[in-house]
Amino acid sequence: MKIYKAVILIIFFVIAGISWIGRNNMSERTHLLKFVVPEGWPQPVYDFKNNPLTEEGFQLGRKLFYDGRLSKDGNFPCASCHQQFAAFATYDHSLSHGFHNSLTRRNAPGLFNMAWQKEFMWDGGINHLDLQPLAPISDTMEMAENINDVIQKLRSDEEYRKMFKAAFGDEIINTQRMTKALSQFVLMMVSNNSKYDRVMRGEDSFNLPQKLGYDIFKQKCASCHAEPLFTDLSYRNTGFPVDSFLMDYGRMKITRNAGDSLKFKVPSLRNAQVTFPYSHDGRMFSLLSMMDHYRKSVVKSPTTDSLVKNGIKLSNFEIGQLTAFIYTLTDSVLLRDTRFAPPGYEKRTQQAPAEHQHIYKQ
Amino acid sequence: MLNFLAVVVLLLSAAPDFTNDKIDHTFIISFNNKVGNNDLHLDSQNYRNSFGEIFTVHQFKYYISNIELRDSISGDSEKFPDKYFLIDEGDSMSKIISLNTSLPHITSIKFMIGVDSLKNVSGVQSGDLDPAKGMFWTWNTGYIMAKLEGESPSAQTAGHRFSFHAGGYKKDENTARVVVLKLPQQQRNNVMIEADAAKWFDALHEIKIEAAPACHEPGKLAVMLADNYSEMFSIPQNK
Question: Which domain covers residue B113, as residue numbers?
């Protein structure tokens, strides 16, 4: 009896010792990344405890984000629709290109400040950031791939096996780890370094049109495009009639409630200068046309938002000032941050690729 | 670490007394899928529902979770909160669930068909809950709790296919159902549960293939299917 207890105690101490050593090794392997909540901002809703940010996880997410193998034919990485120079929207495209000459059904939104969002997509159908990539991967008009096939492709790549091990401790590759790594990469895209932010921090000042624009903004736009995210993340019908081809009724598809017909998530105005065209299907090609819509062409229906139902009164002068203010929301630090560029960008050569060299020799 | 300590303490306290019949052992639940009185054979066999509609079954899958074993003799029960099993007629290994319990005589079993709402709102899971298992809606987050697919001349669709994917976890759309089954005799080691796919059509609501050949989103039809499949389980008398 006593011997029995003694043996168990010895085993206990041995295992405790091993796990202690193992713990130390683990923390040497990964390097924690700090997520900084900008001063005065609300607390993020993403649960970082379940997915601690590490340099290794971030770099894995970065590789995945730029890897075409996540799509069926290899041509459509996440980055094909989410371009850094467009604040991770698709530059100058109402709809984005997908597999086999298809077009997506909605305008690709910019990716930034995702840690503060609890629902995703224009209709809010997805309830967790980690789940978000699975929709475009499996959509036949986007990446058109099967999740299992993506996982198989990653498993057969030695580089990925190494990177998953570095990020998560062993070589197991599954949907959960892939999506957590993608989340880590996307979560770090915090947009808080626009001129507006510098002004708010007292590091810069608006010129006159920007200042006047900010005043008009606070009066006529801020109840939906609320600071500091420049969206209140609500769903609203802003008076766009349904497109007869897309037949997209937005939020109603998710809630099956007629009261949600034609409601879409309020998009952030941050980086709006580079995320044009606007609206859920990209039917508005410029800020001017968007603001013109609010003053002239809002379509009244039972679900049209009360704040825009009767139009927003805007003079040409005010539209000019508002435009000047909205341009101060462009975060050139985010757009140029090399951490979010394709893997290996830091080591790029300044020379044209070999296959282009003959052009220069002529 | 704390878990490990707890295990050691448990071992130290439980180990010396081997005469107690309350010792850890395996309890096996096996699922036998049927259509009415017939065994279920995928694709190869024709069945008939109570409306006379002829059909074959191509896929039959459902989640079993939140299992609780009960011992009415001692009054004890054991819960298995973090175990999720995808029962798939096409994968015979998936139809056998193995649980570790200390209950000596199990008299009833409680479980959920489907996945509780918490796991529907907690991001990407692994194992049987991996979205890559195909029991997940990516565009409108949520698990497909149970799936019955097949062909029927009554289905006015491409290939005469019908597909019932029942899911939804929100209020008024919940398709997870709790089932309690009494065992005919107390058991220590195993129990066999029968699941009758024919109940999907008529247990509590009449669902004709002709009228509703497809369910691919949460809502009224999915809830009706859930009400029906909540009635599909039974434990046969030992013969």
Answer: 23-234
